[in-house]
Amino acid sequence: MRAKITYFVLAAVLVVYFVLVGSRGVLLIEQGTALTVTFGAAVLVLPFIGLWFLWHTTQFARKADILSRELEAEGGLPVDELKRTPGGRIDRDSADEVFAKRQAETEDAPGDWRTWFRLAIAYHDARDTPRARKAMQRAIALHDKKPVRTS
Predict the structure, then answer these.
(1) At residue 79, does pLDDT exceed 60?
(2) What CA–CA distance (Å, rounded) separates 60 from 14?
(3) Contact in structure between 50 and 18 (CB atoms under 8 Å)
(4) For residue 65, what are the contacts with CB-CB under 8 A and spacing of at least 6?
(5) Does residue 121 contact residue 105 with C-beta atoms inside 8 Å?
(6) Quick check: 139 and 116 in contact, CB under 8 A?
(7) 74/79 Cα distance (integer angstroms)
(8) How confident is the model at residue 150 (pLDDT cuts 50, 70, 90)?
(9) What is the chain's mean pLDDT, rounded?
(10) Among 11, 101, 144, 149, which one is least packed by beta carbons within 10 Å?
(11) What's the pLDDT tens digit per position in 26-36?
């Protein structure tokens, strides 16, 4: 819950920032010279890029949370079997062992979103955020393509 509150506070701060940047762009355009209109238009693009990025990040987090809750309901969330240093950090060798298991599971069932979800967590634990994100995107894509069950 703390992470969600932090996320929403930061998102709100970003939106305020985007509004302020946009207002500066409008002020530049109102000056009417070729240079200020050009800069104003360029400045107005920034809030749109930021809002687009914020929207896609929010959708990614929402979809990953849906998968997490579904996997938890199935009892399929990975058990935390990682060794930790006295300071609480994940032991690198332990993360590599768990990663090898998760990678083998994914290779055995490449069409199962659950294995990709667990692989994404293993990547995250190994501090490989770009690959963790790609694996989670793959899990989301596979989950969205799953057949609808009719009773």
Answers:
(1) yes
(2) 18
(3) yes
(4) none
(5) no
(6) yes
(7) 13
(8) very low
(9) 89
(10) 149
(11) 999 999 899 99
Which amino acid, one-letter code, is at 8?
F
State how far the Cα of 122 lies from the Cα of 95, in Å rounded to an integer: 7
**CB within 8 A of 104, min separation 6: which ones?**
none
How many C-beta neighbours within 10 Å does residue 35 have?
Answer: 9
- Spatial CA neighbour of 112 closest among 94, 135, 128: 135
Q: Are 135 and 116 in contact (CB under 8 A)?
A: yes
Helix intervals (H) in the chain: 2-31, 34-74, 92-108, 113-125, 129-144
Q: What's the confidence (pLDDT) of residue 35?
A: 94
Query: Would you state the structure tokens that stand for residue 48, as one six-digit string?
Result: 């749109």
- Of 73, 61, 64, 63, which Cα lies nearest the Cα of 118? 64
Q: Does residue 149 surpass a pLDDT of 60?
A: no
CA 73 to chain centre: 21
For residue 104, what pLDDT is reported? 94
Length of the chain: 151
Spatial distance between the Cα atoms of 56 and 149, rounded to a whole number of angstroms: 28
Distances (CA, A) of 77 to 45, 67, 81, 111: 41, 10, 12, 17
